Amino acid sequence: MNTTSNDACKFFDITLNQLVTWREDDQFGGIEGSIEKMLNCDVDFILGHVLKSGIELIGSSANLSPSYSHNITHLTSLADKVSKNLTKRELLHVQAIINLYSGDINKSCDLWESILIEHPNDMLAIKFAHDSYFYLGQHPQMRDSISRVLPYWKNDSHLYGYLHGMHSFGYVQSNFFQEAKLSAFKALEYNPNDAWASHTLCHYNEYKNEFDSGIKFLRETEKDWSVCNLISPHNYWHLALYHLERDEHEISLEIFDEEISKTLNLNRTLDLVDLISLLYRLKLDNCKVDLKERWLKLQEVYMNRIHDHGYTFNDMHILLMLCACENEEGKKEFFDSFDCYLKEPNREDLIRDSCNNIIGTKKFENYLKEVNRKFGVNLFDAISYFEQKEYEKVVDCIKPIRYEIFKIGGSNAQRDLFHLILTQSALLSNNLEYKKFGINLVNERLGLKPNSNLTKRISNRFTNYHS
């Protein structure tokens, strides 16, 4: 690494360790404090800046905005200044961050994978690729990326066990359920506190229709995974979903209030998604408890996100919140800024010769923007139409793209929200063909989860087809 500071290297490792384990260390000020200490030790530490920018950019639309450009300009200027002292691996890491900021996240993943061919023990590249594949909805890639590097690691290497946790999540999201279960338990043998492996088992129990087992597992192991503050609210979200399945709305809301909302004021993206999604699912399930105050509290914290476009998956939750709060002015502001985002020209990259001299520029491919054009427009319109009770238009928006929605990122469980909205819209439609389509969507859901009380409640509320 291009630093002569042992302390900078130490804090780099401390930061990366917290990121991989999903557990912040208060003695160092968490991830933010560790990054600050790292760069105070060496302000020109290239991989330190790469680590900082990767954490800030992956999965967060806020930092994809033009206001973040000074960070990227600083990184590129710094890399140019010391380029002769940088290794090929460091230069590839820098370029991956530049592409990431410009929305060309697929290219970033390609660069991280190039690093891993020569350096399969580079945990920074492993982690950034793993998380980025998640936000791209590229689950086979998430699985295979870990499969490629695992044989090169010794089982007594630091963080080795966490690779199995990552592997297990790639397995479960690509529907290799037995492999996912085995890999998750292997990870937990190495590290009982591996909350990402525990998270895999949340999905396993969800997809296998074993909601009671899911509750039992999470409650019995709560002391292990709950200490991992970066992911524990999300595991509690899964716990709340299990109770929602059992029509136990009060318990779901208790978990919402006591566990998931604890970090609300930190304004973290993953918490945003969990909180909004859970309330909206309760709303769809005809929850009898008044949710208005909870919605307004979320809006108070997350209103500053309505201009942060890039990740469709994040944006859809902001719009769900605005609709639930009946904030018409906010919705207009959201759609106006989204339209401006789509019209913005793609950023430019520098073209260099073999001696690293700048010889021209080229436009970046902005994959995230293309996803927004292909899917975001339809999905955002569908959410608005649903709130306006224009159910046929909801079906028209979602039905043509429903088998490609995975490309907006997130997990299969998280994106199920769109299947719920589509199913209810079809059943509520005045169009007879769409009503029949809605019945078939209920059949789909029962085919995957025969014992789903949630789906049976949908069927009972909207159709007499199923008893």
UniProtKB/TrEMBL annotation:
Keyword Cell inner membrane: no
InterPro entries according to UniProt: TPR-like_helical_dom_sf (IPR011990), TTC38 (IPR033891)
Swiss-Prot/TrEMBL keywords: Repeat, TPR repeat
Gene3D superfamilies: Tetratricopeptide repeat domain
Domain of life the protein comes from: Eukaryota
Family statement drawn from the similarity comment of this UniProt entry: Belongs to the TTC38 family.
Name of protein: Tetratricopeptide repeat protein 38
